[in-house]
Amino acid sequence: MTKKYPKSFKGxxxxxxxxxxxxxxxxxxxxxxxxxxxxxxxKLKISNNRDEVQLILEKLVKEGRVRQTTGxxxxxxxxxxxxEKLFIGKVDLIRSGAAYIIVEGKSEDIYIAPGDLMxxxxxxxxxxxxxxxxxxxxxxxxxxxxxxxxxxIFMGRIFVNKKYSVVTPFKTPDGFEILVFNEGLNxxxxxxxxxxxVISWPDGKNKMIKGEITEVLSADNASxxxxxxxxxxxxxxxxxxxxxxxxxxxxxxxIPEQEIMQRRDMRDIATFTIDPATAKDFDDALSYRLLxxxxxxxxxxxxxxxxxxxxxGPMDKEAYERSTSVxxxxxVLPMLPEKLSNELCSLRPNEDKLTFSAVFVFDKDTKxxxxxxxxxxxxxxxxxTYEEAQEIIESGVGEYVxxxxxxxxxxxxxxxxxxxxxxxxxxxxxxQFRLDENGVPVEIFIKERKDAHLMVEDFMLxxxxxxxxYIHQKGASGEIPFIYRVHDRPDNKxxxxxxxxxxxxxxxxxxxxxxxxxxxxxxxxxxxxEDETLRLITPLAIRTMAKAEYSTNNIxxxxxxxxxxxxxxxxxxxxSDVLAHRILFRNLNSAIYREDKSLLDVFCKHxxxxxRKAMEAERESVKYKQVEFMSRFVGTExxxxxxxxxxxxxxxxxxxxxxxxxxxxxxxxxxxxxxxxKMKAFGRISGRTIKIGDRIRIKVLNADLDxxxxxxxxxxxxxxYK
Length: 722
Fold this sequence. Notes:
Blueprint: H1 16-29, H2 37-44, H3 50-62, E1 66-68, E2 74-76, E3 82-93, E4 99-102, E5 110-112, E6 125-132, E7 139-148, E8 153-160, E9 164-169, E10 178-181, E11 193-200, E12 209-217, H4 222-233, H5 242-249, H6 257-261, E13 264-265, E14 271-275, E15 284-290, E16 296-303, H7 305-308, H8 314-322, E17 326-327, E18 332-333, H9 338-344, E19 352-362, E20 368-379, E21 382-385, H10 386-395, H11 401-420, E22 431-435, E23 441-446, H12 451-474, E24 484-486, H13 492-504, H14 514-528, H15 532-544, E25 549-551, H16 575-585, H17 597-630, E26 637-646, E27 649-654, E28 660-664, E29 672-674, E30 680-683, E31 689-691, E32 695-704, E33 709-714
Parallel strand pairs: 5-7, 10-12, 13-20, 14-21, 28-33
Antiparallel strand pairs: 1-2, 3-4, 3-6, 4-5, 6-7, 8-9, 8-11, 9-10, 11-12, 14-15, 15-16, 16-19, 17-18, 19-20, 22-23, 24-25, 26-27, 26-32, 27-28, 29-30, 30-31, 32-33
Helix pairs in contact: 1-3, 2-3, 4-17, 5-8, 11-12, 13-15, 14-15
């Protein structure tokens, strides 16, 4: 006969058996709530000490009846919470401290309570068990394993003690601390702002996160600190490992004669680079020569990074982890050490350089009659900035004028063919900054893309497409796994919603067939050049489309109108291109080389994820610099245009500098009701309408650098002007 225990044990000290049964029963009855040993003593009102209850809890954990969550608290593994399935996904942390797990292919995100995160941070990849609680319709989950940490570098303030120190990182959940033993302080003092690298995460025995200081930051330069914070926040390491730097330093500066003998020597052909004025890493160069038969040979020469970076070495591993260079407003965080990115691999003028080249022969009708891919050696004769090349193209005077004009003529024909075959011409405005010697923005303007920019882009597109075509065609009888750059067709629902949105502004989309959709997008882009209201929705049109990504599944590139496309032309700043080089090189002869497709799939997902992080970092830096620029204009009036609407107010883009801020609805002289379309709002008293595209005069109230937000107010009696 089973012994029945009373519900109350107030004041009693239970024996081991009693304690085990009662603790297990109580946690079951709590239906998912978590308690510490001390909490259970208080709940049960028993006189057992904490160590006794803790021992029982640990025994129940070993038996699988109880599980430990974060913070030393325990929860029942009772049958009222039935595991349905295990999923792996990424953590999306919310302000409350809870999180949603985003699982690829799963329509609904999985909710995780704060106590069930097991120390997981935003962006971490985790394994979760989905359970359905009694009395709830929603499926919740708990983290059972952290698969991969999204970052190991943090920025925070250090508090130094006698034997050890603690770093409290910024923008992390409450209670998140990193222990630093004083031999790892690296010169940090109490109260300093530092960057810290995690060297060990908590495990079964170790409950603390341990780290070492990598850099002490100067509190005097807030902008510099914020840029570094942006990079660290996205999981990018500010410094290369010692192993990587050692490997880079060991590479000889000179090119062995034996290596030259194995390559196509193109040093006597007119060759030059065209890049931004501030560029130091020259990925690509163009060459041009007229052949005896009247045909034209054009070479697209790409830095041969794969020659220097060997698979599996420290540089290769770190380049893969980074996957991309990150371009902020005032700095570049390179994918490769400077010795490679700015020296050995960079196609600097008047130096012999190793390249992986794509050479095309065009006939008089500018049709490609032959193409060649292979390793070459070049000698760049001239380094042009985009502005210098543009001036020569426009004036017809200057160095290599014939070559530049011929290249530009062919590029325009390639462009026309591309659009005729279904490419989309949408381009979002690229904001540029002019900075002073301290990195403070003194001017903001929109980058103007002229023939020189488009010419280089067209030849890079040609090389990228041709490489992908070559691999695809060679693998016609049996797939050659490759890293493609793909872009899916727009989602029909998003497309329909955008069409409704555009119609509100007077533009009608034709969604009857894919060709009509493409035509509508291109027509919108053309009209947006003259209609500033339509210009406001071009970013929304771009967001309507699927995001381009890397994949082994070659679905083509919708936006470019290509059936086959890859990234081949920027291996100094993109790891995807390094992989493309390696696979292409091993498939240049008659033999077929096949990379492990499953491994390549993993690479594609990681590289795509890193690319998104880099883009987000870039956007954050732009927003910060915009707010920093506007901070000197608090109290100043500007003219602008309503660029968007939100439940809380309207967004306004300023005419003078394209900075965007918000006017809260409560700053107007009456309250407004936002229309369901989120394109207009109505005054509750007057019934007047304000809408996207309306002109408005504003005053700058606040420039919040911490939150990267601009706060505007309407200038009364001049709210909307014509």
